[in-house]
Amino acid sequence: MKDVKVLLIEQIMANQRELLANIVAQRKEESWPVRIERMGNSFIVSGRGTRLDVYLAETHKGYLVSVPNFSRCGIVRADCTAGDIMEYLELDNPVDATTLATAVRYLIKYII
């Protein structure tokens, strides 16, 4: 059994955030900054006042995207669009879908 000190250190390390990227999402003529951070095995995607906690995993059919704080998940292609996010994750807000699609494309291309 691990001692309490080791468990505390592991818990602190799991909750540390690592900045991965500051990128830009664009929808029609609008654009806004998107911040992507790694926290343990997941990612935090922030943009336009919304935080999306994202788990991403490659499957044989595409990429599984899970957003537990929105109670949504679905499988998308590597070059997913906001429309794909809205359809397969049933995310209703087009700005949030654009933010998430931008982050997912970046994560698939550069991180995963």
Provide the descriptors you would attach to this structure in a database record.
single chain; 112 residues; alpha+beta; 6-stranded antiparallel β-sheet; globular
The number of distinct structural domains comes to 1
Largest sheet: 6 strands, antiparallel
Cross-sheet strand order for the largest sheet: 1-2-3-4-5-6
Count of helical segments? Answer: 3
The average pLDDT value, as a whole number, equals: 92
Distance between the termini: 33 Å
Helix content: 25-40%
Shape descriptor reads globular
State the order of secondary-structure elements, H for helix, E for strand: HEEEEEEHH
Low-confidence runs of at least 5 consecutive residues: none
> How much is the radius of gyration in Å?
15 Å
Secondary structural class: alpha+beta
Strand content: 35-45%
Number of strands: 6
